[in-house]
Automatic annotation (TrEMBL):
Family: Belongs to the IlvD/Edd family.
One GO MF term attached to the UniProt entry: dihydroxy-acid dehydratase activity
Top-rank taxon: Eukaryota
GO cellular component labels: mitochondrion
Residue stretches making up the Dihydroxy-acid/6-phosphogluconate dehydratase N-terminal domain: 14-111
Classification via InterPro entries: DHAD_IlvD/Edd (IPR050165), ILV_EDD_N (IPR000581), IlvD/EDD_N (IPR037237)
Lineage start: Eukaryota, Fungi, Dikarya, Ascomycota, Pezizomycotina
Keywords of the record: Lyase
Example of a GO biological process term: branched-chain amino acid biosynthetic process
The keyword Lyase belongs to this UniProt entry's keyword annotation: yes
Family annotation (PANTHER family): DIHYDROXY-ACID DEHYDRATASE DAD, DIHYDROXY-ACID DEHYDRATASE, MITOCHONDRIAL
Protein name: Dihydroxy-acid dehydratase ilv3
Length: 112
């Protein structure tokens, strides 16, 4: 399966790093994280490792303030942590670099 992702035989002995970000375009705190994620992957690969990128969810209570949407801010932290943990465990990655975008999703990243 990993050959289909672009890996070659020498890559099979390299550590695999999961690079998770809370990127989404609907929040100015997070909309730049996809670009940062690409730069992190470049650094991981320059260090002789294999980097696999993935995203998780994010909620901005600054945008949803005053609506019922703001109720999702705290529980989103658990979902962020759970989704990163699920990918990391399920894919059996050797390390994780997480890229949060604001004070609302950083706790979820740190909980992992």
């Amino acid at each position: 399966m990993l050959y289909a992702t672009g890996l070659k035989e020498p890559d099979m002995d390299k550590a695999q790093v999961g690079i998770s970000s809370v990127w989404y375009s609907g929040n100015p705190c997070n909309m730049h994280l996809l670009d940062l994620n690409h730069k992190v992957k470049e650094g991981v690969e320059a260090a002789g490792l294999v980097g696999y990128q993935f995203n998780t969810i994010g909620v901005s209570d600054a945008i949803s303030m005053g609506t019922s949407g703001m109720r999702y801010s705290l529980q989103s932290r658990d979902l962020i942590a759970d989704s990163i943990e699920t990918v990391m465990g399920g894919q059996w990655y050797d390390a994780n670099i997480s890229i949060p975008g604001c004070d609302k999703n950083m706790p979820g990243v740190l909980m992992v």
